[in-house]
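Internal tracking record. Fields below are filled automatically when a chain is submitted to the structure queue. Please do not edit lines marked as system-generated. If the sequence contains nonstandard residues, flag them in the REMARKS field before resubmitting.
Queue: standard
Priority: normal
Entity type: single polypeptide chain
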Amino acid sequence: MRAWSLPLGRWFGVHLRIHYFFLLLLLFCLLSTNFSGISAWRGIFLWFLLFGAVLGREAARAMTAAWHGLAVRSILLLPIGGLFSYSSPEMAERAVEGSTQWALTLAGPIANLTFAALVAALIEGATSQVPIVTLPLVTAAHLMRSIVWLNVALALINFIPAYPLDAGRLVRSGISRTRGVAQATRSASGLGQMLGIGAVVAGLALLAIPNTHLAAAVSPWLIMGGFFVFIGAQLEDQGVLFQSVVETVRMRDVMLTDFDTLSPSDTLSDALYKAIHSLQDDFPVVRGAALVGVVSRQGIIQALRHGGNGYIQAIMSRAFQVAQPDDSLGALIRRIGSGRLSLIPVAESGRIVGIVTWQNLSSSMGLLAEYRRIERADNEQ
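SYSTEM-GENERATED OUTPUT FOLLOWS
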């Protein structure tokens, strides 16, 4: 979720992120006002209306997930909706079960349609100067009408059986009964990408029709909708592939077994000298065979600059988690991601046998993949 997205903070325990393509849509809204001779602020407001519609539906889905006992860890916002990441693979599997999946599928469209109906009722009751059913349905020139139809469009598009849209999630749920969650997600993602490409092609074909107001009004949204469906399906596909890989990798496969440790009684200057001759950025602090803390190279430098020489025990962090050699890499990533830890010691029978850090993880994974590829080739021969 972190690739091609910006963080919007943590709300009620859920990390919220927005995809860069959502921001790219803001540029489209501004360009549409420029071509139409409308004030630029209307284009910005139109974008915020879409953002609000997406945020509202995802809030409804998150509350539905909480009602069913599912802990949502993060949400990535796209113009077609949001992609959920759960706190554990077990919860991700529970989310595709029959009744839970139906509830999550219906929560978003119901939220959008309910809000659209309320706004339409308020408009009809307040004034007759705002025609609700007039082309174009969504335009920066008529923001009140756009509120209604953006929510309606967001609800209707999620009834298309293209994963990761809501109806597409039902398709995945049906496939998962016979083929498992991972394979079902891969299949549904492939179908979603195909339908996304089809929508883009259909939108381009409509643009070729001369002097048709309906085609001119629908085709840009069809093109963008298909594009975002394709992107969303691809993100889900990559996420499932990543999840399937990390759950098969164990700590013993990627941990560093040649590493340096520090003692609580080491002075900061001695620790810095040791760090000069090490490639590590983070060090376990041990007293005898017991792990008592972790400390970073940057922390040592800052302590020396601001407080002078002292002892490691004064600056070491006692907030750490210990992994077992047979723990999965997926469990490690969830620990580091939730606790913002940069180093995970790996212990066996109370003795540290390795460490895993973000610094070495990517290179270790690359080497492990190459090793497994060579191993498979040797076994096939």
